[in-house]
Amino acid sequence: MAVATVPRRQTDLLEAVATTRHHAHTFALATRLLPRPLRNDVYLLYMVCRTLDDLVDEHHPEAATRLRQVAAWADGRAPLGREERILDDLFGRYPGMPREAIADFCDGQAYDLRPVRMENEAELDTYAYRVAGTVGRLMVAMLGPLSAAADASGRALGIAMQRTNILRDIDEDLGNGRIYVPAETLRLAHVADLRRDDRRLLLRIEIAIADDWYDHGMAVVHQVRTGRFAVRGAAVMYREILRQIERQFPSPNRAVVPAWRKPALLAEAFLHG
C-alpha cells in the first residue's frame, strides 16, 4: 500500500505560515487580509527572509555560506537549497520581482555577521534598505505596481519599518554587540553611553527620521493593484510602535503595541484608506 506524501510546496507553506505567525504577529495579521494565493506566497517570502536572518542572529556556522549561495542564485545560478528553490518558484510567478533586491538583502545580512557600528544616518539608511527596503520592493512587485514610483515607495516603507525595529530593540542589540544608532547622532544627542545616558533627545531625533520615511512610504498604498488595505494596516500598526516608544519615555522597556489596540488601528486604516 502506497504511503501518501505531502507535496513539497505544501510542506513549505505550512512551515511558512507557522513561522510568520510565531515571529511576526503584526505582519501576520496584515497578511491575512490578502487574497489567499497571494497571502500564501507572502508567507513563503517571509520564511525565506526570516530563515536567513535567523542564521545570522544565531551565529550559525553556515550563515555566510548560505548567504553567498542565495546571492549566487540572484546572480543567475541554479537553485541549490530550499531558500533558492522557493525564490525560484516565486520569481517565476511574479516576473517583475527584482533579483538585485535579493542580492542586496544578502549583503545587509552579511553586515550583521560582525559587530555593528554605524557612523552616520546615510549609512543607517543603506543598511535599512538592504535588510528591509529590499523586502518592500519585492512585496510591491508581488502586489502589482501601478507605476514606477511604487518601487521607491515600497523601499521607503521598508526602511521606515526597519528603523522602527532598531529603536524598539536598542537594548537587545546592545547585548549582542550591535549599535545601529549612528555615532554622529549619538554625539548630537549628547549620548556617550546608550545604557545609562538620557536617550529622550536621541529617540526624538530618530523617531522624526522614521516618521519621515513613513510619510514617503505610505504613498505605496495607492500605487499597487492588490492588497492596499493590508499594506496600510501593516504600516499603521508598525508606526504605532513609534508612538508607544514616545508614551514610554524615558522607560527603556521594549515598546510593544498591545493586542487589543491592533483591531482599532486596522479599523482606522480602513476608514482612512
Q: Can you give a write-up of this model?
A:
The chain has helices at 8-23, 25-31, 36-57, 63-74, 82-93, 99-111, 121-143, 149-168, 170-175, 183-188, 200-217, 228-248, 261-271, and strands at residues 116-117, 178-179. The chain is an all-alpha fold. It is globular and about 55 Å long. The chain starts with 7 loop residues before the first helix and ends with a helix.
How many structurally independent domains? Answer: 1
**Residue share in helix:** 55-70%
Query: Got a strand count?
Result: 2
Number of helices: 13
Strand order of the largest sheet: 1-2
The sequence of SSEs as H and E is HHHHHHEHHHEHHHH
If you compute it from the alpha carbons, what radius of gyration comes out, rounded to the nearest whole angstrom?
19 Å
Please give the alpha-carbon distance between the first and last residues.
Answer: 55 Å
Which residues form runs of ≥5 with pLDDT under 50?
1-6
Q: What is the CATH superfamily? A: Farnesyl Diphosphate Synthase
CATH top level is Mainly Alpha
Mean pLDDT: 92
Structural class: mainly alpha
Under CATH, the topology is which? Farnesyl Diphosphate Synthase
Strand content: under 5%
- Based on Cα principal axes, name the global outline: globular
CATH architecture: Orthogonal Bundle
Largest sheet: 2 strands, parallel
